[in-house]
Amino acid sequence: MAKLTIRDLSLRGKRVFIRVDFNVPLDAQGGVRDDTRIREALPTICLALEQGARVIVVSHFGRPKGKPTPEFSLKPAAERLSALLGRPVPLAPDCIGPEVEAMVEALQPGQALMLENVRFHPGEEKNDPAFAQALAKLADVVINDAFGAAHRGHASNFGIAQYVQPVAAGLLLEAEINAFEKSLRSPERPVAAMLGGSKVSTKLAVIESLTRQVDHLLIGGGMAFTFLKAMGRPVGGSLVEEEMLPVALQALETARQRGVGFHLPVDAIIAPALDRESEARVNEGDAIADGWMGLDIGPKTIEAFTNVLNGCRTIVWNGPPGVFERPAFAAGSMALARVVAAHSGLTVVGGGDTVAAVEQAGVASRISHISTGGGAFLELLEGRELPGLAVLTDR
């Protein structure tokens, strides 16, 4: 990496402000239902504690709209972090102010404190300089380990860098950057990118960027039918963005000019509607009849996509090819998840739905890298510079 990481720093006795992403789901009783994001931050937090740092753990949670809201308190996350660390991590009553400053100053080397939700203040999302300065009063060093928020130019992961240096990547953020660099910036070729999702409009910038970087682009999900209709194929009642048909044709032509294989479904699992799973069947031929809609890729497409993927050395996947939450339309996602997991090269998976699909298939542990950022992962694929990465101190 060209940026500083936590491993480059001496942290003993320093107030280390660690920005994490503890925006975790809660259960009906208000406890943490899935602690994956907390566990993923443990290596960074533990490294700082082992070095004798005075650790301040910082996160957002939900959308409290800039004011204190009990249901968006980080108390459940602080309790789970304490349990995972096997040591108390108190929750401060706020994230700025004299009382919080006093709690930070009272920390001993090897102790940790969690701040209350930074989004309880409107200055967080507005990147207000006064709020960023108030946070900076708590820190000697900033460690950013919140890849899931790296595409947000907020005070706690962007504005604070104007007042505290150095700003270094945590171990999780470092792994995210390295996986992206290895998969798309300096990959082992051939490279395949597999995209799903419902709309071409939301992935157009990604497609444009990827056709400059990959050898093969495989398109599934609802957006595939916009491309298929643009090519003149009848798609029945499948999801189509009519206004995007000319754009889809242009994307196909651009891929052709750049020598990129552009792979679309050759069959589909169809049903009259999403809620009529009992009537689902494999579509015969290229054309989908009126009154039917495609909701997953079919067996011929699974075979064709598998052949492409097996011929590549690097795979990047964002977006499942079907409505995998419904059993009748899950076969495509499950099959491709198993293909990606069995691949001997580098495999990178990102996006909440895609991660859920590989977890449902039971193969998540066999993926080279699972990204923790949905929007951030997409924006990296689009070729954008993420604010949370841009402010990291150069090595």
Describe it for me?
By secondary structure, the chain is α/β, with parallel strands linked by helices. The chain has 2 domains: 6-175, Rossmann fold (3-Layer(aba) Sandwich), CATH 3.40.50; 187-381, 3-Layer(aba) Sandwich (Rossmann fold). It has helices spanning 36-50, 75-85, 98-105, 122-125, 129-136, 171-185, 200-210, 224-230, 245-257, 299-310, 331-342, 352-360, 375-381, 387-390, and strands at 15-19, 54-58, 112-114, 141-144, 167-169, 191-195, 216-219, 261-263, 268-271, 281-282, 293-297, 314-318, 346-349, 369-370. The strands form 3 sheets. It has a 6-stranded parallel sheet with strand order 8-7-6-12-13-14, sandwiched between helices. A 5-stranded parallel sheet has the order 3-2-1-4-5, sandwiched between helices. A 3-stranded antiparallel sheet has the order 10-9-11. β12 (314-318), α11 and β13 (346-349) form a beta-alpha-beta unit.
